Amino acid sequence: MPRNISVPWAALILLALVGTTSPSSEHVNHLLMRQRPAGPANSLPEVLESQNYLSKYASLLELLAPIDSAFEKETDFDIDNENQIVPLLQYHILKETILTDDLQVVEPHFPPTMLLNETWTNITGGQRVTLMRQDEDEVFLVSGLDSRSMIDYQNRDIHFFEGVIQPIDTLLVPPMPLAETIRGRIPSMSAFLGALYKTGLADEVMDAKDVTIFAPDSQAFQKTYGALSELSNVELRNVLAYHIVPNRVLYSSDLQHQGQFLTRATLDDKTEPINITITAAGNHRYIGSSAVLDPDIMIANGVVHIITDVLNPLIPDAQPDPARKIQSPVFGPRGNATTGKTVPTPYLSDLPCITDCAATEMTAGPARTLHTPHPPTMRAAAVKCTGLPGVKAVVGIGMLAGIL
């Protein structure tokens, strides 16, 4: 027997779906009031069927429903905050149904959600979430700020009507803009972010729709500090532009085979963009000759893949040697002879302060390891000029509590 979802959670899901049809606020509030507990609880199918313009969703829904314990730390749940509730709920509703038994081990899927609100996302077709089977009885999701949520495997694939509920242990976090993502969860990308600000590319990249960013980590910038420090601002801007693929959101599943994609960079004074080359070798993926270190970091307007080395647009035909752990440099020795971990992380001074900021030096951190997505953990977050609200302040609600 399918499990019913009783009000007020059916009403909240209804509210999320109503949000995709752009009704008036008065109509949304009217629907909420009609569905609040005052009599016998309605099931979700009954709620959907009662609204004829929502009937198309009945066969499309997959709900990612946080279990009760996910809300114990959430204290500011506000059912009346429509601007907050609607997009967060929409991010917990997939546009397609994927059963856990259909997932292959370590083969990520990136289903679109119903989060289409341009205040929250700038991706064609809806913001995505990563869904992956880690092993026989572990399936997890990765959302914004690299937040991970495990599916309750013992209670997976709960069917209702023609949809499916997947109980999850942690709220999904709608992906944040690039700057907030780096500052909040990925401090190893701070040099890249600082360089974007230095060259005036940061706002352009974060305002663009559908972008893929191959971002060198800070160790990569330390390794090439001598050469990069000799570049003009225009030259550095073009180097960074070579790491950005516009108008395409390329997840790791799109990097499985050899291919080329146009970047924002140009060669010399020409206007034609330069291609980057994708190479697949065993389980590893290379962008030019740089290995993908950490794939599929969701951001509001696309996806980021962290890579091991800074790419050089003047050497677009650079190829990797998969047999080598360290690839041949694409930047020759120039400028400051001191490079590597002894060099202070460059471009941190170009990061804008957003609160009272004490200058702190970031260290290179532990040795890097290539890997595929992994089970739920959270990266350490300690980065200069951090004044961002935490995940709790961003998400800070108790969605769908008691849904099961």
TrEMBL record:
<dbReference type="GO" id="GO:0031012">
    <property type="term" value="C:extracellular matrix"/>
</dbReference>
<dbReference type="InterPro" id="IPR036378">
    <property type="entry name" value="FAS1_dom_sf"/>
</dbReference>
<dbReference type="InterPro" id="IPR050904">
    <property type="entry name" value="Adhesion/Biosynth-related"/>
</dbReference>
<dbReference type="GO" id="GO:0007155">
    <property type="term" value="P:cell adhesion"/>
</dbReference>
<feature type="domain" description="FAS1">
    <location>
        <begin position="28"/>
        <end position="165"/>
    </location>
</feature>
<protein>
    <recommendedName>
        <fullName>FAS1 domain-containing protein</fullName>
    </recommendedName>
</protein>
<keyword id="KW-0732">Signal</keyword>
<feature type="signal peptide">
    <location>
        <begin position="1"/>
        <end position="23"/>
    </location>
</feature>
<dbReference type="GO" id="GO:0050839">
    <property type="term" value="F:cell adhesion molecule binding"/>
</dbReference>
<dbReference type="InterPro" id="IPR000782">
    <property type="entry name" value="FAS1_domain"/>
</dbReference>
<dbReference type="Pfam" id="PF02469">
    <property type="entry name" value="Fasciclin"/>
</dbReference>
<dbReference type="GO" id="GO:0030198">
    <property type="term" value="P:extracellular matrix organization"/>
</dbReference>
<feature type="domain" description="FAS1">
    <location>
        <begin position="176"/>
        <end position="311"/>
    </location>
</feature>
